[in-house]
């Protein structure tokens, strides 16, 4: 049980670690178009991302799939940039009671699922370095994944809470909130891409 809690804490710390903020940026980009009243949609969106990264996290940790780590480290900020850019097409509803149309929502769910597959491979790099030659990896894998989800929910709660303050309490434009947050995320993601060593090697 002690080992379970250790790996749970490591998973939580990994996704919430400010020094490795790429996964944080992706979750922020996913949530940037939503308000706290749309928490059900956000829950479905986060679940789609969870399914995606849980699959590849398990497969990669169990060494059932193989990939180039440097390529994944490049693809992760690309998924962040794409998600942020898609947010720029967001149209503010005429009524506060209206939400995004079903087609827009389903598209984001598919995107979260697909990009979750890439992020799962990124998570596995860290987990495999922790496991070393440990024989039983099923429990650590489960604990680490739960820790990731708890950390992810904390990030989502903070983003939606801040959106509530800005949009509902301070009466700022929802569209402006979405554009500002997405613009900041896009800029940071672009910086990660430009400074990526794998991309630099490809450009030579």
From TrEMBL:
This is HupE / UreJ protein. The chain crosses the membrane at residues 20-36, 43-65, 71-90, 110-130, 150-170, 177-194. It comes from the Bacteria. Keywords: Membrane, Transmembrane, Transmembrane helix. InterPro entries: Put_HupE_UreJ.
